[in-house]
Amino acid sequence: MSRGIVVGTRSAGVAIAGLALAAAVSLSGCSEFFLRTQDPVVDEPPVQVEERFTQASLPMLDLLFVVDDTSSMEHEQGLLQHALAALPEQLDDAALSWHLGVVRTDLGNDDAGLLLGDPWVITQELPDPEAALAAAADVGIEGLPPEAGLAAAWLALSAPLRDGDNRGFRRPDAALHVVVLSDDDDDSSDFLDEDPGTLLLSFFEEEAALSGQPARLSAVVGPEPSGCSSADGGDAAAGSAYLALAEATGGAALSICEPDFAPLLDAVGDLSVAWPTRFELQAEAVADSVAVRIDDVRQDTGWMLEEGDAAVVFDEAPAAGSVIQVRYEVAE
Questions:
Q1: How far apart (Å, rounded) are the C-alpha atoms in residues 99 and 89?
Q2: What's the burial of 46, exposed, middle or buried (CB within 10 Å: 0-12/13-18/19+)?
Q3: How far is residue 265 CA from its own chain's centroid?
Q4: What phi and psi, each to the nearest 5 degrees, are found at residue 200?
Q5: Separation between Cα atoms, residue 316 and residue 91, nearest integer Å
Q6: Cα–Cα distance measured from residue 115 to residue 161, given in angstroms and rounded to the nearest whole number
Q7: How many angstroms separate the CA atoms of 113 and 64, rounded?
Q8: Range 60-272: architecture per CATH
Q9: What string of H, E and C letters represents the secondary structure of the chain?
Q10: pLDDT value at position 96?
Q11: CB 185 within 8 A of CB 237
Q12: What is the pTM (predicted TM-score) of this model?
């Protein structure tokens, strides 16, 4: 979404200064009195503003994979690598502008929370994004427990790494999707000062509010209540913390014991195509003064005004590339 130049118009009010008449009249007692005309009251006309927005032609998605790098994950990492080979093309087919990044769950080392690979932000502009993603996702199986996937995501996406070593990954207008792959439940309590699930849920809510785009977590973990066993004999504990956060944020859930991770990537694409529906105004508007047009066609329904937050919110996202015009009176 891009914003056009805000056009504000104000009719110049005419302030009429009062004409003062002072008359000193000498009477027999030499007393004085003054007469002054009253200044007329002139009401200034309301300030009329028109703002223009251009709907994004490509929705933006920042997709972070959090991969368990402990010794029991060799088979599952192979399945992930196979599925990821098709991901860049899938995201392109979904008409997304995307950033991809990978972190590992082992935080007991110097690269805790650091995006892996070179470059650490994988984009569609790279000459071979598939190879770059494969290299980043090859996290190895030498990591040690506890598997702290939520803390890894938090460290990667918050200060100081967000604007430091991981700079360039997170974009202010992009949707955020974190995908966790682990055969154990989250154990981030040693690395965070508060409950990991509560902290991450608040973080996702804040990211969604700031970007106007979805922020969610999807989980490829052991299902509840007792986990699962895969065809190769591997076992996975129930990833209850991840599953709870996936449900709370509207993410997807897939059993890590399934032999094919392709459905997860299909779900990621489906959940990530989200054109903006909310367009923030630069001033508070008088509610009954707002007029909305899309590509010069007046819209009498299908939108609402958020008065407290000064924004126009559509029931359905305007089409890609369309021009949204919002004319309103500025509230005093």
A1: 13
A2: middle
A3: 20
A4: -70, -35
A5: 22
A6: 9
A7: 11
A8: 3-Layer(aba) Sandwich (3.40)
A9: CEECCCEEECCCCCCCCCCCCCCCCCCCCCCCCCCCCCCCCCCCCCCEEEEEEECCCCCEEEEEEEECCCHHHHHHHHHHHHHHCCHHHHHHHCCCEEEEEEEECCCCCCCCCCCCCCCCCEECCCCCHHHHHHHHHCCCCCCCCCCCHHHHHHHHHCCCCCCCCCCCCCCCCCEEEEEEECCCCCCCCCCCCCCHHHHHHHHHHHHHHHHCCCEEEEEEEECCCCCEECCCCCEECECHHHHHHHHHHCCCEEECCCCCCHHHHHHHHHHHCCCCCEEECCCCECHHHCEEEECCEECCCCEEEECCCCEEEECCCCCCCCEEEEEEEECC
A10: 85
A11: yes
A12: 0.70
Domain ranges of the chain: 2-55+276-329, 60-272
- The two tokens of residue 78 are 């192979």
Give per-residue pLDDT as tens, 260-302.
887 877 777 667 666 788 899 999 999 899 999 999 999 999 9
| Mean pLDDT for the stretch of residues 88-96 | 85
Give tens-digit pLDDT for 44-71: 788 899 999 998 777 889 999 999 999 9
Radius of gyration of the chain (CA): 29
Q: What tokens does 28 get?
A: 């027999």
Cα separation, 88 vs 130, in Å, equals 7
Rounded to whole angstroms, what are the CA distances from 62 to 73, 120, 122, 283? 25, 13, 10, 30
Please give the pLDDT value at position 34: 44
Amino acid at 22: A
Q: Cβ contacts of residue 79 below 8 Å, gap of 6+?
A: 259, 260, 261
pLDDT at residue 292, rounded to an integer? 97
Instruction: Return the residue matching tokens 């094919």.
Output: 260
